[in-house]
Amino acid sequence: MITPIYVALLAILFVFLSFKTIKIRKRLQIGVGTGDNPELLRAMRVHANFAEYVPITLILILSVELLKGHFVIVHCLGASLLISRALHAYGVSQAKENLKFRVSGMLLTFSTMLVSIVSILYLSSL
To answer: Which residue ranges does UniProt annotate as crossing the membrane (predicted)?
Structure first.
C-alpha cells in the first residue's frame, strides 16, 4: 500500500499547522475565535483549509490505489497533494502574501483531485 505513506506525511504537516495555530493562540492569549487578529486568522484558515481538502483527496487517491491504479500514478498523486498543501500553507500564512504560492497550491490540489476522479472513473469501467 502506498497511500498510507502520504496519509502519514500529510498528518505530520497537519500537526505542524495545528501547533503553529496553538502557539499563536497562546502568545496572543486568544482561546476562541480570532480576536480580530489577522495573524491568528491566517493560521486558522491555513489549518482549516488543509482539513477541508486533504481528507477527500486522500480518499480519492486511496480509491485509485484500491482500483489497482499504477503505483507511479498513486505516488504522483500523493506527492502532488503533499506539495500542493505545503505551497498553499506557506503562501496563505505570510502576512504579505505571495499569491503565486496560494494559487499554485490550490491549482495543484484541484489537479490532484481531478486526475484522481478521472482515474477512478476509468478504472471502474474496466
So the answer is: 6-22, 43-64, 70-91, 103-123
